[in-house]
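Tip: read the tokens left to right.
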């Protein structure tokens, strides 16, 4: 069962619904359902706002890797249900897709039986993205997606169970879509340009996971070798990197013809280069990072998302899991998110130093501190 959430720009309600659905499916043990999100008005890939990322992070939802995606025919054909947030958005979605697939378009709260009228069922986006507005949208999306996943767990795993007529699914490659292919080319080209040491085909597939993993290794190679020919190349590490603009010939710096050859070409002795009398000053030593302010035990517990009664070995597992989640190397394609991850890692280390000796010991605590 493939469910596709449709919002306007795919930077707020869409990724929120997808992340919550994945959590509900994992919690309820739902197998055989996949969730993705697209935007009706997306033309260029963009990331969610920082306010949304921080808001969802408080509920342990990480959408830093999310990238907005357009509503394309290939995704419409592959989806079993197309779920919109408002009735008006559902009407516009029906006009934007092909006629045989318009019957798959549903409204989230209407499909799960929430609300009595259109106004009560519509989930509008937060205008100013204030914490109060974000909380209101989050609570409604969480309730709707939770009810939807619960209905999937109870047996509604066919389009007919939702009042949708099944359509023949044509297995067409994503690269065969003339509208989606240029979008993927821009996405992969931007990914290669951001990487300092180049990217491998596996890195591209992993990055395209935010797009619903539409490409295989063969399709990625086709994009890199044919669509991006002349723009990317393999380096000595067998990774793909962007091709820099060719520099001008060396003769342009020193003139052309006989003048560029220097006196040695005319039989004379080459003059030694004048010695540089002014020595360059040695760079100043790097400043030592200032010691971070000590945090209280309650603040450390809040950062580690544990309680006072949590055993030390269990808190250590949570601490290491958070370190892996916010490892800066996972955000190499975005300097802003990488800086946020580094700050988060520092706070986690400081919180663990404070809480490690104050948490109660468990029955089977491993020896040694963190590595």
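Filled-in amino acids:
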């Amino acid at each position: 069962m493939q469910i596709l959430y449709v919002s306007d720009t795919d930077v707020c309600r869409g990724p929120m619904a997808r992340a919550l659905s994945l959590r509900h499916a994992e919690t309820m043990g739902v197998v055989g359902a996949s969730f993705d999100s697209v935007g009706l008005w997306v033309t260029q890939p963009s990331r969610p706002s920082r306010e949304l990322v921080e808001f969802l992070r408080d509920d342990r939802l990480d959408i830093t890797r999310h990238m907005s995606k357009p509503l394309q025919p290939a995704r419409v054909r592959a989806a079993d249900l197309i779920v919109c947030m408002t009735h008006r958005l559902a009407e516009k979605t029906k006009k934007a897709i092909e006629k045989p697939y318009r019957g798959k378009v549903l409204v989230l709260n209407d499909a799960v039986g929430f609300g009595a009228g259109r106004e009560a069922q519509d989930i509008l986006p937060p205008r100013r993205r204030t914490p109060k507005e974000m909380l209101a949208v989050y609570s409604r999306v969480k309730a709707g997606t939770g009810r939807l996943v619960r209905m999937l767990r109870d047996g509604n795993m066919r389009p007919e169970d939702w009042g949708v007529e099944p359509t023949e699914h044509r297995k067409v490659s994503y690269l065969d879509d003339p509208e989606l292919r240029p979008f993927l080319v821009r996405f992969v080209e931007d990914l290669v340009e951001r990487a300092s040491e180049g990217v491998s085909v596996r890195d591209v597939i992993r990055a395209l996971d935010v797009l619903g993993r539409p490409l295989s290794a063969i399709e990625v190679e086709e994009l890199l070798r044919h669509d991006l020919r002349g723009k990317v190349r393999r380096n000595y590490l067998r990774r793909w990197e962007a091709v820099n603009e060719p520099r001008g010939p060396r003769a342009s710096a020193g003139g052309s013809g006989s003048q560029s050859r220097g006196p040695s070409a005319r039989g004379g002795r080459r003059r030694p280069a004048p010695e540089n009398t002014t020595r360059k000053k040695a760079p100043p030593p790097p400043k030592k990072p200032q010691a971070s302010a000590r945090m209280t035990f309650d603040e450390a517990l809040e950062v580690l998302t544990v309680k006072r009664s949590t055993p030390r070995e269990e808190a250590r597992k949570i601490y290491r899991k958070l370190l892996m989640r916010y490892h800066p190397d996972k955000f190499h394609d975005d300097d802003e998110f990488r800086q946020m991850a580094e700050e988060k890692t520092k706070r986690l280390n400081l919180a663990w130093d404070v809480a490690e000796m104050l948490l109660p010991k468990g029955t089977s605590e491993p020896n040694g501190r963190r590595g």
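The domain at 2-162 is CATH 3.40.50.2300 (Rossmann fold). The radius of gyration is 27 Å.
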